[in-house]
Design goal:
- The chain is an alpha/beta fold.
- It folds into 3 domains: 97 residues, no CATH class; 376 residues, 3-Layer(aba) Sandwich (Rossmann fold); 243 residues, Glycogen Phosphorylase B (Rossmann fold).
- Helices cover 48% and strands 14% of the residues.
- The strands form 5 sheets. Strands 1, 2, 5, 6, 9, 10, 11, 12, 16 and 17 form a 10-stranded mixed β-sheet that branches. A 6-stranded parallel β-sheet has the order 20-19-18-21-22-23, with helices on both faces. The chain has a 3-stranded antiparallel β-sheet with strand order 13-15-14.
C-alpha cells in the first residue's frame, strides 16, 4: 500500500515551512526568531498529515464504518512535534529540512507547546489509546475540552505548592483546526413544564434555559507507519450573544460582558475547585458541556448517512473514560426521547447498547456523586430523566429480586440521606452494555468488593482491560539510545509490534550488552542532572542510584512512605556519619489538588527535608532529595529513561492500575512496589525475581481493617519508626516551626493511619536492603533491568486496544488507501 508519508522530502518540508514563515508569520528567514521557526515548521508537519486526515475521514464516511467515540475530560497528549515527526517516519528528513531554516531539531523542540489538557494517568492513558487506535487503523474519534488554562502551573514558594495559570494557548497552538461551522448551542438552567403535542399527548418540555455555545477544534492524531490520521475534537465554550453593546452604552460596563465571562469560564480550567458551591456548579456544567456537545456531534455525523436511528448503536460505540462524561447517557436519552419523539423503551435500548464505561477507582470518595438539588437547578430535564431511569430499573429489580431491599438500596441511582445524591458510577453501570476495570486486580475488586450487587444484577457485564502505554512515545521518542541498542540486536519490526521486543531477552546475560545498557542509562542520568540543576539549582551525581516517584500526589499513593524511608536513612547517618550507605538521589515530581491540604503539606515536608539533607556536611552527598516542579509529559520523558528505581508503593487494593509503572519498567527501571494495580501483572510478566515486592497484600489489609487496625502497635515494636514519626511531629527540618507537620503525624497515628503507612514501614525498609545490595553488582542489576525491558511487550496500549476491540467495541480494521 502506498503511504502518503513516502512523498515527504526534506525539500518539500523546508518549502512548506518557509511558506508558513512568510504567509502565516509574515517574516522572511533573516527576521525569523526561534519561535517563528518552530511555529512554521509545526504547521508544515501538520500540512504533511492533511492528506491522510482527509482520506481517513472520507473512508469512514463512505464505508459507514462502526466507530468508537472516546469521551474523556483529560488528554495528556504532551508535545506533539517530535511525536508526529516519529509517527511520520521523517526524523532524518526533518533534520535535513531544518538546515535550510538554519536551526536544529533540538532548538525548536524546546519551544514546542505542551497542551494543558490533563492532570495525570487518566489523561495520559487517553492519549496512549488515541495513538494506538490510529496506528492500528481503527475508526475512532476522541472528544474532550479545550481548556484555556489546563490544570495549573506548579511553582514552589518557600517549599509550598503555588498554583499559577498554565498559559499554554498564549501564542496559539499549531496543531489544531478550528471548525466554526459545527458550533453547537448548549443549554443549562431553566424549568420543565407539561405541553400537549398532537399525536404524543402530554410531554415534558424544557424551557427558559440559558444558552451558550461550543466551538470544536480538531487535532489530527497521526498513526505510526500507516495512512490513518484520526481526530481529537476539543470543545471551547463561548457566549451565544457575547458583548452587549446596548448595556455598554448605558454605562454598565461590567454587565455588558457578564454573559461572555460566564460562558468562557466553562472551559477556563480543568477541574475547577469544588470547594465552594459555585465551583461544584461550574464543574457540573463543564461535564455536561462535554457530554452534550459530543453526543450531538456523534448524532450529526450519523445522520449524514442514515434516516433513522435503527443502526445507531450498530455504527457507534461511546466509551466513557471514568464517570466525568456520565451525563452523555442522559443526554442521548433526552435527544432520542424528547427531540426525536422515540418511545422510551426503544431509546433506552439504543442508549445501553451504545455506551461502555471504564472505571478507574475503588476509592469511595472518588466515585462521583452530584446532589439532586444541584442537578435539578442546572439540568432540570436531565434530573427528571435520571429519576425515570431509576424508577424503571428498580421496578425490574423488584420483579427479579422480590423483597431484597438491601440490593435495591445498593444499586439505586439515588443515594438517600440528608441531601439526596445521584451516584454517577451506578448510572454508568445501568446505562452501559459493558463495564471494565483497568487491571486484573482492580477489575476483580470492582466486581467483588466495590459493586458486587451490580455483578449479581448484571452477570457478565463486568470485564477487564489492563491499561497499556504507547512505546512510540515512551521508548522510541524519549529514549533513542536504548531504542537504537534494541534495534541493533533484534531488528526494526518491534517498533510496530512491541510483543517482538521479547527477543531482546536473549542478550540479558551478554556482558557487552549489559555494559552498553548501563552506559545508556548513565547518559540519560547525565541529561536529567542538567534538568535538575536548571529547575532546582541542585547538583546531583549521575553515579548515584536514581530513585524515582512521579505521579499525582495523593495519600494512597504514599509519597509519604518514601519520605519516611529517607528520614530513616538520614537519621542513620546522623547517628554514625561514617556508616556505609548507598549513594542515592530521590526524585519526586507531583502536583497536589489545590484543595487537598494534607497532600500540599507533604510537598512542603519533602522540600523542607531536601533543604536540610542536601546541605548537611555529615551526609556528604550520599543522599540527595529533589522535587521537580510542574510535572508534565515533557518532564516525564526526561525522568523515566534515567530512573534506576520505580516507586509504585500505593496501599494495596487502592491503585486501579498505574501506567507510570509500565513506562519505567520499559525503560529499564526496577520496580519497588506493593501487589497493587498493574504491579501484579508486571510481576507475572517480568518474573518475581526481577521486581521488588513488599508490604501487606489486599486481603491482609482487609483482615486488619476487620479485626481493628492499631497503628500504635507498630510504633511500639519499632524504635526506627518511632524516631521517624517524631522527626515529622517535631519538624526537625525547621525547629522554628515545630507544629508545621502535626497534621501529617496525626493522620497516620491518632486518626487511624487509613493507608497503612506504619504497617508497611518495616517491610519497606527490609526491601530496600535487597535493592541496595543488588545495586552494588552492576552486571546483575543490568541483567534484571534488561529483562524488564524485554518482558514489557504485553503492556503495550496496542494490546489494550485489541482487547477492547475483541471484547467490547468489535471494531474492524480500516486501512486507508491513498489515491
Amino acid at each position: 500500500m502506498k503511504h502518503f508519508k513516502e512523498s515527504i522530502t526534506a525539500d518539500l518540508l523546508a518549502e512548506r515551512a518557509l511558506f508558513h514563515l512568510k504567509y502565516s508569520r509574515g517574516k522572511d528567514l533573516r527576521a525569523a526568531t526561534t519561535f517563528d521557526k518552530m511555529s512554521c515548521f509545526s504547521h508544515a508537519v501538520r500540512d504533511m498529515a492533511v492528506d491522510g486526515f482527509i482520506a481517513t475521514q472520507r473512508k469512514y464516511l463512505d464505508n459507514d464504518v462502526r466507530r468508537v467515540n472516546y469521551l474523556s475530560m483529560e488528554y495528556l497528549i504532551g508535545k506533539m512535534l517530535a511525536n508526529n515527526v516519529v509517527a511520520l517516519g521523517i526524523v532524518e528528513t526533518s533534520k535535513e529540512a531544518l538546515k535550510k531554516l538554519d536551526i536544529t531539531v533540538e532548538e525548536i523542540l524546546e519551544l514546542d507547546v505542551e497542551a494543558g489538557l490533563g492532570n495525570g494517568g487518566l489523561g495520559r492513558l487517553a492519549a496512549c489509546y488515541l495513538d494506538s487506535l490510529a496506528t492500528m487503523e481503527l475508526p475512532a474519534y476522541g472528544y474532550g475540552i479545550r481548556y484555556e488554562h489546563g490544570i495549573f502551573r506548579q511553582e514552589f514558594d518557600n517549599g509550598w505548592q503555588c498554583e499559577r495559570p498554565d498559559e499554554w494557548l498564549a501564542n496559539g497552538y499549531p496543531w489544531e483546526l478550528i471548525r466554526p461551522e459545527y458550533t453547537l448551542p448548549v443549554c443549562v438552567y431553566g424549568r420543565v413544564k407539561k405541553n400537549f403535542i398532537p399525536g404524543r399527548g402530554s410531554v415534558d418540555v424544557w424551557e427558559d434555559w440559558q444558552m451558550f455555545e461550543a466551538v470544536p477544534y480538531d487535532v489530527p492524531i497521526i498513526g505510526y507507519g500507516v495512512n490513518t490520521v484520526n481526530m481529537l475534537r476539543l470543545w471551547k465554550s463561548q457566549p451565544a450573544e457575547g458583548f452587549r453593546l446596548d448595556v455598554f452604552n448605558q454605562g454598565d460596563y461590567v454587565r455588558s460582558v457578564e454573559e461572555k465571562n460566564w460562558a468562557e469560564n466553562v472551559t477556563k480550567v480543568l477541574y475547577p475547585s469544588d470547594y465552594t458551591y459555585a465551583g461544584k456548579e461550574l464543574r457540573l456544567i463543564q461535564e455536561y458541556f462535554l457530554a452534550s456537545c459530543s453526543v450531538r456531534d456523534i448524532i450529526r455525523r450519523y445522520k449524514k448517512t442514515h434516516n433513522d436511528f435503527s443502526k445507531f448503536a450498530e455504527k457507534n460505540v461511546v466509551q466513557l473514560n471514568d464517570t466525568h462524561p456520565t451525563l452523555a447517557i442522559v443526554e442521548l436519552m433526552r435527544v432520542l426521547h424528547d427531540e426525536e419523539a422515540m418511545p422510551w423503551d426503544k431509546a433506552w435500548d439504543i442508549t445501553v447498547n451504545t455506551f461502555c464505561y471504564t472505571n478507574h477507582t475503588l476509592l469511595a470518595e472518588a466515585l462521583e456523586k452530584w446532589t439532586v438539588d444541584l442537578l435539578q437547578r442546572v439540568l432540570p430535564r436531565h434530573m427528571q430523566i435520571i429519576y425515570e431511569i431509576n424508577h424503571r430499573f428498580l421496578q425490574k429489580l423488584e420483579i427479579n429480586f422480590p423483597g431484597d431491599g438491601d440490593l435495591m438500596r445498593a444499586v439505586s441511582l439515588i443515594e438517600e440521606g440528608p441531601h439526596q445524591q445521584v451516584r454517577m458510577a451506578n448510572l454508568c453501570v445501568v446505562g452501559s452494555s459493558k463495564v471494565n476495570g483497568v487491571s486484573a486486580l482492580h477489575s476483580e475488586l470492582l466486581r467483588t468488593k466495590t459493586m458486587p450487587e451490580f455483578d449479581k444484577v448484571y452477570p457478565g457485564k463486568f470485564c477487564n482491560v489492563t491499561n497499556g502505554i504507547t512505546h512510540r512515545r515512551w521508548l522510541l521518542k524519549s529514549n533513542p539510545e536504548l531504542t537504537g541498542l534494541i534495534s541493533d540486536k533484534i531488528g526494526e519490526e518491534w517498533k510496530k509490534d512491541l510483543s517482538l521486543i521479547k527477543t531482546f531477552e536473549d542478550f540479558a546475560k551478554t556482558k557487552a550488552i549489559q555494559k552498553r545498557f548501563m552506559e545508556i542509562k548513565r547518559d540519560n542520568k547525565v541529561e536529567l542532572c542538567k534538568v535538575i540543576k536548571e529547575l532546582t539549582g541542585e547538583h546531583v551525581s549521575p553515579d548515584s542510584m536514581f530513585d524515582v516517584q512521579i505521579k499525582r500526589l495523593h495519600m494512597y499513593k504514599r509519597q509519604l512512605l518514601k519520605v519516611m524511608h529517607i528520614i530513616y536513612l538520614y537519621q542513620k547517618i546522623k547517628a554514625n556519619p561514617k556508616v556505609k550507605i548507598q549513594a542515592s538521589t530521590f526524585i519526586f515530581a507531583a502536583k497536589a489538588a489545590p484543595a487537598y491540604l494534607i497532600a500540599k503539606s507533604v510537598i512542603k515536608l519533602i522540600n523542607s527535608m531536601a533543604d536540610v539533607i542536601n546541605h548537611d556536611v555529615d551526609v556528604a552527598g550520599r543522599l540527595k532529595v529533589v522535587f521537580l516542579p510542574d510535572y508534565n509529559v515533557s518532564l516525564a520523558e526526561k525522568i523515566i529513561p534515567a530512573a534506576d528505581i520505580s516507586e509504585q508503593i500505593s496501599t494495596a487494593g487502592l491503585e486501579a492500575s498505574g501506567t507510570g509503572n509500565m513506562k519505567l519498567s520499559l525503560n529499564g527501571a526496577l520496580t519497588v512496589g506493593t501487589l497493587d494495580g498493574a504491579n501484579v501483572e508486571i510481576a507475572q510478566h517480568v518474573g518475581d525475581e526481577n521486581i521488588f515486592i513488599f508490604g501487606h497484600r489486599t486481603e491482609e489489609l482487609e483482615e486488619l481493617r476487620t479485626k481493628g487496625y492499631n497503628p500504635w502497635a507498630y510504633m511500639d515494636k519499632s524504635k526506627d519508626l518511632q524516631n521517624v514519626l517524631e522527626a515529622i511531629r517535631d519538624n526537625i527540618f525547621d525547629p522554628t516551626q515545630p507544629d508545621l507537620f502535626k497534621d501529617i503525624y496525626n493522620d497516620i497515628t491518632e486518626h487511624g493511619d487509613f493507608y497503612f503507612y506504619l504497617a508497611d514501614f518495616e517491610p519497606y525498609i527490609k526491601c530496600f536492603k535487597k535493592v541496595d545490595k543488588l545495586y552494588e553488582t552492576p552486571s546483575k542489576w543490568a541483567e534484571k533491568a534488561i529483562l524488564n525491558v524485554a518482558r514489557m511487550g504485553w503492556f503495550s496500549s496496542d494490546r489494550s486496544i485489541q482487547n477492547y476491540c475483541d471484547d467490547i467495541w468489535h471494531l474492524e480494521r480500516t486501512p486507508i488507501e491513498m489515491v
